Amino acid sequence: MPGGHEQAERQPQQGTTTTSERDLGLDPALGQGGDAATGQSSELQDPQVEFVDVFASFQLGAGVVLSSSTSRELRTTWGTTITLKASRESLQIFPSSPILIDAMWPAQNMEFYGLTVDFASGAISVDVSLVSGLGEGFLDYSENARSEIGALVAQGIAGTPMGAGGYDPFTDANLAGTLAAIQANFEALPGGGGESELDAGDLQNVAGGATLRMLAPFQQTSGDKGVRVPGGSQFTVRAQGSGSVADITAARDDQGRAEAVNLRNVQITDGEFQLFKGGETLAIIRSVSIDAGGNVQIGQFDLVGSAQSAAGAESLLRLLGAAAQLASRGVPGQAALHMASNSPDLDAEIVEGFARSEIDAGLTRAVHRLLAGNPYAIPGLDLRRIFDGG
């Protein structure tokens, strides 16, 4: 095998990927009683919300051999997160950093960036690129690699609902059965794929999530203050665990698998949570996190309206104050103003600090209510567990 492989300049493509599998502890049977996922599952208790996509991921360390044969070795070069994500349109599988296909010289080495199964047409596209450099080989076998990987996936989904045109995982009345059939297909494949050093214990820090769309506005109020989420807006919920696939597959039942995930935190990103007071919107919260004790903390947010004006006034006062200090030290007026404008200390702190305290109180109640109303927004995981210390 060629050595001294260097990272290709190309960056991994950002993709989207799968329904969660039982082996990842994200049981496709959404209900505690084992009811299968549907377009609007009964476990999505609040009809204001619908699925846009669902995903699951796990982490692999550097140098893990995924498959090895006499002609090539498939391995991680760096630590990477493998994500599987499913929408109504497609299934995607992609690594956070490319996986090396170390080919027998003189074949040129390649990198695998991911694959997509289009549900409407059944077409499978595989993203493989050549690696250039001394010792990387010179014969182009990338089309062969795409064909082999695509054929492997096609055999895995053959004869299952996913292999038929027009498949929709959110309306599959027996999603668990579909996934079990795919797993059985892969297990029945001949060993031509090569040997693997991969063990279930290598698949660490399992996570899962979903992107949800608000079908109707959501609002949480207390007096003249509150938080609302506009109808039609979307946000992504991601639950991060610290368990491994080995821990999860060793569990005896759904409850055991949920515990094996060892839920550490929940992140809500790309949101539009509007903080209002007295009828005026003061801030839009884009991201929040919930720790294992159920404490809600805001991440990114934007001040709007009078709050934004107040922040702008505070920043202006900071700018003038900094310029005055520089001028008192002999710096000419225009130069002092220019130097002060490049200072990292101009961001409003008093206004944003006040806004953050206002947000913390109202947002915590709103997030608790939103997740409590949709405890299975991530299939197979009860998000109410995050408020009980995991």
Description of the structure:
Strands 1, 2, 3, 4, 5, 6, 7, 8, 9, 12, 13, 16 and 17 form a 13-stranded antiparallel β-sheet that branches. The chain has a five-stranded antiparallel β-sheet with strand order 10-11-14-15-18. A hairpin with a 2-residue loop joins strand 10 and strand 11. The chain contains seven helices and 18 strands. The model is unreliable at 1-45, 310-324, 335-341 and 346-354 (pLDDT under 50). The protein folds into two domains: 22-198, no CATH class; 208-304 and 349-388, no CATH class. With 390 residues, the protein is an alpha+beta fold. It has helices at 142-157, 175-188, 245-250, 254-261, 305-328, 333-341, 350-373; strands spanning 49-60, 65-68, 72-76, 80-87, 90-95, 99-103, 110-118, 124-130, 204-214, 218-222, 225-229, 234-241, 263-269, 273-277, 280-285, 288-291, 296-298, 301-303. Helix 1 (142-157) packs across helix 2 (175-188), helix 5 (305-328) crosses helix 6 (333-341) and helix 5 packs antiparallel against helix 7 (350-373).
